[in-house]
Amino acid sequence: MPLYSSQPLKIYNSLSGEKEDFKPIHDGNVGMYVCGPTVYSNVHLGNVRTFMSFDVIFRYFLHLDYKVRYVRNITDVGHIVDDVDEGEDKIAKKARLEQLEPMEVVQRYTVDFHNILKAFNFLPPSIEPTATGHIIEQIEIIKKIIDKGIGYVANGSVYFDVVKYNETNNYGILSGRNIDDMLANTRDLDGQSDKRNPQDFALWKKAEPEHIMRWPSPWSDGFPGWHLECTAMSTKYLGNHFDIHGGGMDLKFPHHECEIAQNEACTGQAPVNYWMHANMLTLNGKKMAKSTGNNILPGEILSGDNNILSKPFSASVTRFFMLQAHYRSILDFSDDAIVAAEKGYKRLMEAVDALPNLTAGNSSSIDFAAWKQLCYDAMNDDFNTPILIAQLFEAVRYVNLIKDGKETISATDLADFTTAVNAFVFDVLGLSDEKNADGDNDKLEGVVNMLIGMRNQARADKNFALSDQIRDQLIALGIQLKDGKEGTSFSIQ
Ligand code: AMP
Ligand code: ZN
């Protein structure tokens, strides 16, 4: 029997503002779309937090035996600076400043993004579509919205008529904003805009002659609007109606509000059952952001190369630090907080490492089945990772009691307990046992030192054929020996 049938899950739905029972559209299957990065600069730790929140959500669905199609896009066109339609495309701007092709910018930062995800042990999504790879689909959606009388063409650009849409729908349904207030509070500053109402947003923008990112369309050579790309890619791979749409809290308005409007205008139905929003990582109480420079890069955490940091921290410690907060809470980064997280992580890993050495005996006074259910209860309650971690520390206490002979555990309980701890620590939270990685390094060092000893002996025996063979074969493996006054050392390429 799949695990999900015995573990009812509740998800906080931003649309209703309540925790709701999760009921997938297709039994046993989950379709989830998460807005990906705009690849015009390196991702910072704040971006990593949002993607990590959804990585753990993805991991938990998989753990519950759901079949998950997880789509996370790459925004490589259409994201305008300041989210205002009159600004410059973020990628085009970077390309102009650095004298690169826009696709060189995209390639550079997509590679950086992937390297970071790998370093932080993210599971790859099922599909990772790019906005520029879906221009045709976006043009088709615009045509439909125009046909419904909700999109209009002005000077080669196409806009979404928010006021017209709102006559039969609710623009503001997700963000709780009221369109009359919005209209009353905005003025069209330059009076030059092609828009009918200041709240209207671009579906297609005509490219100025100097604009390098451009595609032909029925209206002009131009480029699609940012909101449109997510509508095109989510519905292409998940259908017009799917289970979950996620992103950072700051995307709720206007991005996600506009996505709902586009979908409803097109198909007449709400696209998504559960909207999920991850909260921000802050630094000095302010949102980490690319534009303000108030951020830490993931590489800086790993190298320690930032004045805020007293030392480097590993990827798993960073993960542990982040998952100690619930995904809907703001988390403030500080050196003290991550130092404390490192201590907690090490304590947890010591217990995990001790598990295989525990010996089973009489049955225990501890109720291990009840403990395991508390771990599930935490995750079933809107993916509450801090409570799960608190339960894992309870497990650490059990391990220590058993190790000290103050408690006993039966063989069946020990097997079940070990499986559960490993599943929650590695599969669900996505932590890695870095001590074991260190252990592997220790072993490698031991083996190379043993070979150095054998080579020294061969040289003493004047068996130069053997000593050269050891040296050359190590070089072939990327291990370089260096003979010095203090003896022989080695480096690994
Ligand atoms: P962007 O590349 O700017 O589109 O952002 C990619 C993702 O990171 C979006 O889901 C944002 O909501 C999210 N994000 C941006 N800044 C932060 C932050 N300080 N903390 C958490 N998530 C963030
Ligand atoms: Zn999006």
From TrEMBL:
GO molecular function, one term: cysteine-tRNA ligase activity
EC number from the UniProt entry: 6.1.1.16
Record's catalysed reaction(s): tRNA(Cys) + L-cysteine + ATP = L-cysteinyl-tRNA(Cys) + AMP + diphosphate
Transmembrane annotation, as ranges: none
Assigned keywords, A-Z: Aminoacyl-tRNA synthetase, ATP-binding, Cytoplasm, Ligase, Metal-binding, Nucleotide-binding, Protein biosynthesis, Zinc
Cofactor note: Binds 1 zinc ion per subunit.
Top-level class of the enzyme under EC nomenclature: ligase
Record-annotated Cysteinyl-tRNA synthetase class Ia DALR domain positions: 374-437
Residues reported to bind Zn(2+): 35, 230, 255, 259
Major location (coarse): cytoplasm
Pfam family, one: tRNA-synt_1e
Chain positions recorded as ATP binding sites: 290
Protein location: Cytoplasm
Required co-factors: Zn(2+)
UniProt motif ('HIGH' region) ranges: 37-47
InterPro entries xrefs: Cys-tRNA-ligase (IPR015803), Cys-tRNA-synt_Ia_DALR (IPR015273), Cys-tRNA/MSH_ligase (IPR024909), Rossmann-like_a/b/a_fold (IPR014729), tRNA-synt_1_cat_dom (IPR032678), tRNAsynth_Ia_anticodon-bd (IPR009080)
PANTHER family reported in the protein's UniProt record: CYSTEINE--TRNA LIGASE, CYTOPLASMIC, CYSTEINYL-TRNA SYNTHETASE
NCBIfam families listed in its UniProt record: cysS
Oligomeric form and interacting partners: Monomer.
Annotated protein name in UniProt: Cysteine--tRNA ligase
Record organism: Flavobacterium quisquiliarum
Biological classification of the source: Bacteria, Pseudomonadati, Bacteroidota, Flavobacteriia, Flavobacteriales
